[in-house]
Specification:
65% of the residues lie in helices and 0% in strands. InterPro entries: DUF1468. It comes from Nonomuraea purpurea. Keywords: Membrane, Transmembrane, Transmembrane helix. This is Tripartite tricarboxylate transporter TctB family protein.
């Protein structure tokens, strides 16, 4: 079983680094506003710290050789799927300067839904549109955080 989990510590380490970076970047948006109100950087800070702590715990468990959840062997397809999603996330991040954050995020959600989760194309498109719309509403409209618009300029101002 240990041979199946060889890449697991690396996945958790990458997730710790990404989430720590997200938490650190949140200070650039302002964690609080004047008067002590929650600022646009509050959600990325809390999410980043929580994800970093949970990922670090999973990393420690993985390195110590703890049993997989519920005592079952880990399916190598699940690890391959996890690496596929990380690869798609990297591709989406590389697309942001060209397409803008909203388009890259929508394409990421669609691709994961349609090709990784094997949902029907119409369902995957619906999930992508709803997720992107919610992201836009929360960050641009509610929090007033301008998202990177890329060369297309989509979603760049709130």
């Amino acid at each position: 079983m240990r041979s199946l989990l060889r890449g697991e510590p690396a996945v958790w380490a990458v997730l710790v680094c990404l989430s720590t970076g997200m938490a650190a970047a949140s200070f650039g948006y302002g964690v609080t506003k004047e008067g002590g109100q929650v600022g646009p950087g509050f959600l990325p800070l809390v999410s980043g710290v929580a994800l970093a702590v949970l990922s670090a715990a999973c990393l420690v468990r993985s390195v110590r050789g703890g049993a997989p959840p519920s005592g079952e062997d880990v399916d190598p397809r699940r690890i391959r799927t996890l690496w596929t999603v990380f690869g798609l996330l990297l591709a989406a991040l590389l697309l942001v300067p060209v397409t803008g954050f909203l388009v890259a995020f929508g394409l990421l959600v669609f691709t994961v839904s349609a090709f990784v989760e094997r949902q029907r194309v119409v369902s995957a498109a619906g999930v992508a549109v709803v997720a992107t719309s919610v992201l836009y509403a929360v960050f641009v409209l509610f929090l007033g955080v301008p998202l990177p618009g890329g060369l297309l300029g989509v979603g760049g101002d709130g």
